[in-house]
Amino acid sequence: MGNHRGVFAFLLTTLVFNTSAAFAQRISGPFAGLFSNEPNRNTAEALDLRGSVFGSYDQNLVHDVNADAPPGDPRLTNSGATLGASGSMTYDHSSDNLQFGAHVSGSTRGYTVSSERASAVGGGAVVSKQIGRKLFVNARTTTHYSPFYQYAPALTGIDGSPGATWPAPAPFAIGAVANPNVVLEGDTELVSHFTKRTDFSIGVGATKWWFLDFPENDVATASGHLGVRHRLTRPLSLHLGYGRELVGYNYPGAVRTPNDTIDAGVDYNDALTFSRRTTLSFGASTSALHTGDEIHYRINGSLLLTRGFKRTWQATAGYFRSSDFLPAYREPVLEDRAELGVSGMFLSRLQWSAGAAYARGTVGFDTGDRIESSSASTTLGFSITRFLGVSCQYRFYHYGGMRPGLSPFDFQERQSRQVFAVGLNAWFPILNKTKTATQGEDRQ
User: Fold this and answer.
1) Could you give the CA distance from residue 67 to residue 406 in angstroms, rounded to a whole number?
2) pLDDT tens digits, residue range 285-308?
3) Given the DSSP bridges, would you call strands 219-231 and 236-249 parallel, antiparallel or unpaired?
4) Element (H, E) at 74
5) Taking the model in full, what pTM does it have?
6) Is residue 440 in some structural domain?
7) Quick check: is 180 in a domain?
8) In angstroms, rounded to a whole number, what is the distance separating the alpha carbons of residues 167 and 425?
9) I need a labelling partner for 225 at 20 to 30 A (CA). Which of 60, 103, 205, 416 fits?
10) Element at 12 (helix H, strand E)
11) How far is CA 382 from CA 31, 82, 161, 194, 390, in A?
12) φ and ψ at 401, to 5 degrees?
């Protein structure tokens, strides 16, 4: 039988608070375009090109070598210098009833410890369109190719600056296994503003992982959700939702695994009363994960505290609890993680960000297989001109708990990496149209 104690736990956690930021700490000034890729709220249309050349030194340390695994790729297990380049193009359009954004990016990196290069490409698009007086459609799609499986379950490694554009040494700092893969994901949602206070939504999504050398490790997911939200006052609203995800592995004998989520609670959208520049958000939901003939209930949730200070500085601290299906495992990953981050500008030309994250959890229910991962980074960027800057970055990455046989991938049991990098970064604003006085604010 399943763990039906989760039903009682769900009844205790149906109250969910979610306070979004009532303030927006934005990078501003003549060098804002180089330091941040966040579009300005007054921008009607923009096209940006960005590029970087960088050099780095990767120090890799493998602990508890897994004797059953083949020798690791020297690009991920040996220490040495690298030289690389990256570039991206971003397009944004905003009008009263349409918001659209698209991007493409690529990077390549050469290693002194290997004759093989590592190159990655990716892209995506997002659109929000008003299709009726009270009806909106939102859609998103992304795709990415990488020569490495980047193992960091539920670990984002906050650097304190979500809009930061300093790319070195991404995207391979958390590469764990040389397993070339392609990811394609997308989702769409229909939202109806049924009344001034009540919204209905319904959506579907799908994700597909292709592992080019080991197709038996391919993973596909399909999901759907529906929900209703009712605003009681300007900052306070109630919501109720249900979602289901189907996870399909490609190995022989695999069956699709359903994952149900119930999300019910209260949203509070305002700053804390004791500080107008401090916001707190927290929430909870219940997942019903099916494993064979059993149903396991798990309470997931998040807690995030954000504090803005001075003109451009922001600090964040968060706790997150999740249940995920990852290609690296054939059972659900149950994790808890904590994150810290801070960012801001010392001078109009000088930006700094830093952050750290730690995650720990288990693979499957009642297995005793504990895994952990951690990441920390700091970046200092200096603008030479409005369009050219230099940066230096340090990043630490670690994972552990990979006993032999736990994953179909050839992980070592534990591995640590630290990366020291410097880069020359350029920004080329090709198009930048500002909204006219007759254009209204975005409705969605």
Assistant:
1) 14
2) 788 887 767 888 888 888 888 888
3) antiparallel
4) helix 74-77
5) 0.82
6) no
7) yes
8) 8
9) 103
10) helix 5-12
11) 10, 22, 15, 49, 5
12) 95, 10
